[in-house]
User: Fold this.
Amino acid sequence: MTAAAVVHLARMALEASFWISAPILLAAMLISLVISIVQAMTSLQEPTVSTVPRLAAVGAVTFFLLPWMLQHMMNFTIELFSNFHPFTR
Assistant:
């Protein structure tokens, strides 16, 4: 396997993992930002106030986007195995 093939395979894997994890990370970031602003405005610095809504948001986003994420992973796997010949040289 050539170095270009390894780089291409790694790039494909990183792109797939980015697109699968991006909605979850974005939801966690947005909820954390909102909670941080509310905590700064109210001077309430309880750690559970920021953790519980973030976990709930991540769980909800994962629950609702799980079919899309699985479809994306299946498409990546099918594409990888259907065109695996260049990687075996």
